[in-house]
Amino acid sequence: MSHQASRMRYLYFLIVCNIFLSCKTNHFHYGVASPNYQTQLIRHTCISISYNPDCRQAEWVVYSLRKEVLENAEITRTDRFIPDPLLPDSISAHDKDYYKSGYDRGHLAPAADMAGSLKCMQESFYYSNISPQLPGFNRGIWKKLEAQVRKWAVQYDSILVVTGPLLGIDENNRIKSSQVCIPKGFFKALLIYYEGKPYGIGFFVPHLSLSKDISEYRVSIDQLEKITGFDFFPSLKKKVQKRMESIVIPERWFTE
Question: Is the dihedral of CA 231, 236, 242, 243 positive or negative?
C-alpha cells in the first residue's frame, strides 16, 4: 500500500472518530444507557467512557487504534490501578473491591493498545476502564481477541473499537462486600475502512473460561445491538450503516 493511500485511510478515520467523539449528546452517538441507571460520560486523552456508577465500571469504552502507534509502542505496563480522576471517589471501584475476590482486574481498553504513550497507558489502568473477569476468561479467550484486534489494526492501518461488559443490576451478582457488578459477558464492536468502504464486525463472548476459537463468537453489528441495547456507529449514512451492520464479510476478517 502506498504512503498516500495509507494517509488517506487514516484521514478518513480521523473524520469518523471526530464525528463520533465530538457528539456530547446520546452518549457520543454510540447508544443510550438503560433507563434504570444514570451513566456519566468521561473523555480522556486516549479513551472515552460511558460510566455506570451503580456497577462501578464502564458500560462501554471507545478508542481508535492505529498501526503506527502499535509499531512504535515503547511504554511498558504500569500495573498501577487507580480511581479515575474525573470521577467522584465515592462511585469508583478501588483495590479493596478486587482483593481476594477471585476475579482479575480485566481491561476494557487493553494496556497493550495504549503503549504508545505514558498518558494512554496510565488511563488504561483507571478503574473506570476495568471490569471483573474470571482468570480463565481474561487470560484466555479475551486475551486472544485483544491480540487479534491489534493484528487487524496493523493490517488496516486504523480500527475503531467499542468494547464493554454486558451488565445487569442484580444485587446478588456483585463481588462480595462490593458494589462492583459481575458481567454476564463482554463485547467488541469494530469498524475498519478498506478500499473506500467501512466494514464492521461484532463479538459477544460469555463470561466463562472458554477454549473455542474467537471466530465462534463473531456476530453482525445488528446482532450485537440487539444483545447490548446500544446503537453502534449511527453517524454513518443510513444506507451505509444498514449494509455494514447487517452482515459480516468473512474475507475482511477471517480466512475461511
Answer: negative
